Structure prediction request, 175 residues.
Amino acid sequence: VKLVIDWISTSLAQKPGYGAVDLFLLGNSVGGVHATTWAFHPDFTESVAGVPPTTRTGAGVLLRGLMLLGAPIHFGGDDNEILRAYYGGGPDVIAKNIPLALAEAAKQRAGANLLPGVRIAQLLSELDPEYLYQSAKDLQDTWPNSEIETQIIKGHNHISPQCSLGTGIEKEEAW
Prediction:
């Protein structure tokens, strides 16, 4: 995510017609884990500061929104081989690096200035696994001023929303 943001800032935004870029990140499932890790992990503070979510005067790239589509903000305390491999350690490492823990730590570091002006939307599919609903609620409860919008996408499952894009079927693309 950081490399894409860097490319947008240093290459795309420098091309004619792209000087003022409003950036919206969409992360589906584990892509939402990647996007929230970039937004909240202290290793990426400088990168996030490079696209400040404030009012732009002139050219530049501004982070305007973060959309989490079926993104697990935590895994309900799970400790399994996949999570150990992804996070590089056992239960303590997993618990410290899940998006919810990163958001809580970022909130402690930044207080009310945690991504000011950035809109966050959590989209859950009606047929998503149940733990994602609790995960989304926990992030909303953690976030300062509850500036997170959560919506349910009717008739979809965990992978169908992104597959429906470009189909031309209004009911499928309505989300």
Summary: The CA atoms of residues 164 and 172 lie 5 Å apart. Residues 130-142 form the longest helix (13 residues). The mean pLDDT is 89. Strands lie at 20-28, 60-69, 119-125, 148-153.
